[in-house]
Model the fold of this input.
Amino acid sequence: MLIRTYSSAVNGIDAATVTIEVNVSRGVRFFLVGLPDVAVKESQQRIESALRVLDLHWPGKQVVINMAPADIRKEGSSYDLPLAVGILAADEKINSSELESYVLIGELSLDGSLQAVKGVLPIAMRARDEGFKGLIVPAKNAREAAVVSGLDVYGMNNLGDVVNFFNGTGSFEPVKVDLMEIFSIEANRYDVDFSDVQGQENVKRALEVAAAGGHNLIMIGPPGAGKTMLAKRLATIIPPLTLEEALETTKIHSVAGKIDDHSSLMTRRPFRSPHHTISDVALVGGGTNPQPGEISLGHNGVLFLDELPEFKRSVLEVLRQPLEDRIITISRAKSTVDYPASFMLVASMNPCPCGFHNHPEKECLCSAGMVQKYLNRISGPLLDRIDIHIEVVPVNYDKLSNTVRAERSSSVRERVVKARNIQAIRFDGVKGVYSNSQMTSSMQRKYCQLDEAGGRLLKTAMEVRGLSARAYDRILKVARTIADLDEAEHIRAEHISEAINYRNLDKEGWAG
Done:
């Protein structure tokens, strides 16, 4: 008897439907074709054991299974469930009338229980788009898949539950998730807040400008000045995720297996902070079976690189293309995978190997050559993609011991959201441009025009303070964001002045 079941293969952050054809006929052999990998081929032993536990034995006949389309490599153990159900249906132990209405996914244990798998959210979205009635997944993946509307999602604990479901001998209800309730409860819940930071008002202002315009930022200062503490609070002032952004972010984390059993949707912007020993592949993604890297896991959020000069030069250089294109393409001999990588880069660094260059109180032990060599670990092209350079100085005792609570993240976020709304109107209808940091040269000429006073100030700064030519565009974009925070239609001289002060590395000649 020939039976069809349906599953799905994940490529990048998208899924493709896989048709599993099972034919049970006279004979004793077993064939599995359709470009399966080793994990799929090993499913026979898992299925046989699970069937014995359920007292549903492997057919004593010839079993031929084809996984179509045959040009897509089938990888992983998530095909165990559809293969087992197909074999049972072809052996007439399961009612097959409803099989073609459902997509099945899940890994079988030897006792027949279902284990969680990766990539359930893009699979659910593909199943809905192709008109399937429902999706059957392990119970641990049910809430993740249930965020997709218009699809009945059933979370099953074991193969026996799936058999009873199709035979109509059990009572099963689809899992329901209220997206609006999740957003209202979780969207603005953070464990940290801007009010935790005493002092550092100039750095807080720089972070507010960065969040308002989507600008990349680097903080330079001695150890213990608060760089990491400030960076971890940046996500609390960025506008909340929209539903579309939340779904896209959750898809990436689902493919990477980063969604826990109790989560259904990522409602807060991700904050990724990889260690400086990270490899190129771990940062940008890849591997034999391509997986998203840290820059994609930070999509729609913040990628924080602490102690930037300590990262390998090759690791830092691979950031240049994703920072411009906001997408990373991983090419292999047989396939090409695209992962989104639209993130805010926030970096921190000491000014020298000992950490006390330009410190107001402590003496630096490094020679001028050592300082320059340390700073030159960061290439000019990478610094060119960082809009804001801000120095962080240590906070004195009086400010640390101040009991007056600083401004909360919620208040700062209100101003940031207003500025982002102005930019949304400005760039309405322009594909791929959502904030001032993404402006092209033609947009910059249109939206960053200076009056006479502003032009004179910028020209003087370029000449007197030794600002590099590449700082010109960055200053204009940051000044446009500062004007948006002031709800000003035109860029004024004070906006230019503040933007110039956010180019510390250029001012000191630290860019090499």
